[in-house]
Each structure stands twice: as structure tokens, then as C-alpha cells.
Write a structure and sequence with these properties.
about 425 residues; alpha/beta; seven-stranded mixed sheet; 7 strands; about 10% strand; elongated
Length: about 425
């Protein structure tokens, strides 16, 4: 890690029609600079305001401050686009942002920079969920729900998924991008950090005040966007987890649907005619479970290819992936085919000999189920072989890195 004196901070203030608050927000940032430099152990602190297509006096007010850089979009591009433009314009080794509405205290940047250094983290978030927060209850409830959902998908806890005050290491931006341009920029970043194992996030409690002016956040519309972006991040970066959860749910339902027929058959060796409906339902659910299990394994390999990392080997995902080894898939396919043939064999023999079949329908249903599972396993094997081929081609095309140091061969005396 670089020494404290070599760190510098770029603070980006995205602003859309914030003429009521932008002046005081800039002044508070300028006043906080000495504190951020001393307590946050950073050298230069630069401030960049990005007017995101404002139609009021936001840009005019910001340009009054000569110590502040100002970027102006001719049209509204979005909250995330403004922040990313500010990051690209700034020079700091650390990049941060805060909302222009006066809700955040710029002095907290010192705590965020300090937390990054002490905990060797990549992203520091100012959490608005503490006792000093004045966040409206409906937004606090939504934030709690999104945090719970993201924690469930990533198995890493976060208290505030959409905080508008953060500090990041500039050299980790490539690992975070792409990020959306809209208001869902912040939950998308939170999801990306928590789901990517190589990124570390730290939260710092901060006071949060009621905003100046009218909020641009729609609880319903943006809440749906936040939910979608968190789910999309999970599906892109850790797709096996939600798929395996769904597979487990279908497996449980299949067990419930088939419990009574299975118990009767084991106890008396027979089935009631009406049970065909339960057995067909259990068969359908089992097929769905198998499809989701195989999709989870394939999706994990595809995600690993896309982000050039090894497939995950830990947790339930790793366990399922290890069961789907080439040998395991071959053995499983052969056992399923053998089971289907064994179950249907009496009917096959009868049909060859007499041209008729009097075999009980349950044998046909079970044989068909086993054949379907064997087919799903075969398709999975084909797709996994394709991913292995692509990975091998990527390895061949990768540039060979030269050695750090070349030692000349010693001449013999």
C-alpha cells in the first residue's frame, strides 16, 4: 500500500438542479479540507462539481468558487454518469463522492480515508443507518430490505446499500466497472463489491441530515430499479447461488408432492390410480430442479470465463461443481440410462413378444424421468466442454509475461 503522504483525494459532487444547496455544500467541502488532510492522512484534496444537465443556477453558482473544478453536461445523463465523469476528470489516488443536497457532512471523508488505510479496504461507505440519521422511515425500511437481500445473495453483510457518500481506491475502479449511469449506481456498486470476493468493503457510521430542496428519488420506481440491479449483479457475478436456492426449493416441493406415493409403494408395493397426478407433478418439479442445478454449474463456469477467474470452489457452489466432474457426469449418465432400462425392461420384453404393453404406468413415468435427467446431464456435459475449450483458447492467446529479471548463464571455467 502506498504511504499516507502519497495519497490524494478527489471529491466529486454530482448535481442536478441543486441551486438551493450547491453553494453551502461546496463551502462545507472547502472548509473540511484541512481536517480531511490531517485526520484522513491525505495530501491534496480536490473538489469537482458535475452539473448533470441542470436547468437552474447550479452551474453558475458552482463556477463562483475558483478552487473547485466544474464539469457541465448539456443534457441529463444520470447520477452515475456524473460521478464517473468526475472520477475520470480528477487526479486523486482516492476518489470519493457525496450528494449535493446537504445531507452528508464532508468531514466524514477523513473517517472514510482513515478506514480504507487501517483496514486495507477497497471501498469505504458512509452508513446512514445509525442513530444520528434523519432518513425518512420508508427509505430506511427499503434500505434495510435491500441490505438483507444483498447479504443473502453474497453472504457478506452491509448496512446501507445506497449511501451517497463513499471513498474508493482509484486503482480498483476497473474491478468495479461497468456501473450504471442512473440513481442505481450506488446499490450496483455495493452489490459488485460484496459479490466479488477480491474486493473489500468497510462501513463507517455517519450523521445524515434532511435534504435541502425536493428529492429526485422515487421510492417505488427507484426501489424496483435497486432490486433489479442487485439481482442482476448476483446473476452476473455469482449466478450459482440464486439458481441453487431455486433448485433447492423445487427439490423440496418435489419431495412433498411425491412423499405419499413413495410411502405407499414402500409400505405395500402398490400405487393408487389417483396418485398419477402427484407423481407427474413430482416428476415435473424434479426436472426443473435438475435443470437449475445444471444451469448453476454452467453459469458459474461462464461467469468465471467472463471475468477471467477460476470457478468457485467454496461453499455449496463448490460442492455441486465438484460433483459435476467429467467422471461424475459420465458415471451419473450411465447410471440414469441403466436405471431407465431396468425399470422399463419388462414392458420392452412384453412389447417385443406380444406387441402389447400391460406394464404399470408408474414404470413408464419413472423411466421417462430418468431418461430426461440423463439428457439434461448430457447437455450440461456438452456446455461444460465448450467452456473448457474457450478457456484453453484464452490461455493460448494470453500474452506471455517476461520474467522480472534475467540471469545470464554462467560460463564454465
Amino acid at each position: 500500500m502506498a504511504g499516507a503522504s502519497s495519497q490524494s483525494l478527489t471529491i466529486v459532487i454530482p448535481a442536478l438542479n441543486e441551486e438551493e444547496a450547491i453553494g453551502s455544500t461546496i463551502e462545507r467541502c472547502l472548509a473540511a479540507r484541512p481536517h480531511i488532510q490531517q485526520a484522513g492522512h491525505v495530501g491534496e484534496v480536490e473538489i469537482v462539481v458535475v452539473s448533470d444537465g441542470s436547468t437552474d443556477r447550479t452551474e453558475e453558482i458552482a463556477r463562483r468558487y475558483q478552487e473547485v473544478g466544474v464539469l457541465a453536461f448539456q443534457r441529463n445523463r444520470g447520477y452515475g454518469a456524473a460521478i464517473k465523469a468526475g472520477f475520470a476528470h480528477g487526479r486523486g489516488t482516492l476518489v470519493g463522492f457525496l450528494d449535493a443536497d446537504g445531507t452528508c457532512d464532508p468531514r466524514v471523508f477523513a473517517d472514510l480515508c482513515q478506514a480504507l488505510e487501517k483496514q486495507d479496504a477497497d471501498v469505504a461507505i458512509g452508513s446512514r443507518m445509525g442513530p444520528e440519521s434523519e432518513m425518512p422511515r420508508i427509505r430506511a425500511l427499503g434500505n434495510t430490505l435491500f441490505a438483507w437481500m444483498l447479504g443473502l445473495l453474497s453472504t457478506r453483510a452491509v448496512g446501507d446499500t445506497a449511501s451517497g457518500m463513499r471513498v474508493l481506491r482509484r486503482d480498483r475502479l476497473p474491478d468495479l466497472y461497468p456501473l450504471p449511469d442512473g440513481l442505481h449506481f450506488t446499490p450496483a456498486m455495493s452489490a459488485r463489491v460484496l459479490i466479488e470476493d477480491k474486493l473489500k468493503l468497510v462501513e463507517v457510521p455517519m450523521p445524515y441530515a434532511e435534504r435541502v430542496g425536493r428529492s429526485k428519488l422515487s421510492v417505488v420506481r427507484d426501489g424496483i430499479r435497486f432490486f433489479r440491479v442487485i439481482l442482476q449483479a448476483a446473476m452476473c457475478h455469482r449466478p450459482a447461488r440464486p439458481l441453487l436456492a431455486l433448485a433447492g426449493g423445487l427439490g423440496l416441493l418435489a419431495g412433498v408432492a411425491g412423499a405419499a406415493p413413495a410411502a405407499l409403494y414402500l409400505r405395500e408395493g402398490r400405487l393408487e390410480e389417483w396418485m398419477i397426478y402427484r407423481i407427474l407433478l413430482a416428476s415435473l418439479l424434479t426436472t426443473g430442479m435438475a435443470l437449475l442445478l445444471c444451469a448453476a454449474v454452467v453459469a458459474e463456469h461462464v461467469s468465471a470465463l467472463a471475468y477471467r477467474r477460476a470457478p468457485r470452489s467454496a461453499g455449496v457452489t463448490g460442492l455441486v461443481r465438484r460433483l459435476f466432474t467429467p467422471r461424475g457426469r459420465l458415471l451419473g449418465g450411465l447410471l440414469l440410462l441403466a436405471g431407465a432400462l431396468l425399470v422399463a425392461w419388462p414392458g420392452v420384453v412384453e412389447y417385443v413378444g406380444t406387441g402389447e404393453v400391460s406394464m404399470h404406468w408408474s414404470r413408464a413415468v419413472l423411466a421417462a424421468q430418468l431418461l430426461v435427467l440423463a439428457g439434461v446431464l448430457s447437455i450440461t456435459t456438452f456446455l461444460l466442454n465448450m467452456t473448457s475449450l474457450i478457456r484453453a483458447q484464452q490461455a493460448e492467446r494470453a500474452p506471455v509475461e517476461p520474467p522480472d529479471r534475467i540471469h545470464p548463464a554462467k560460463s564454465r571455467p
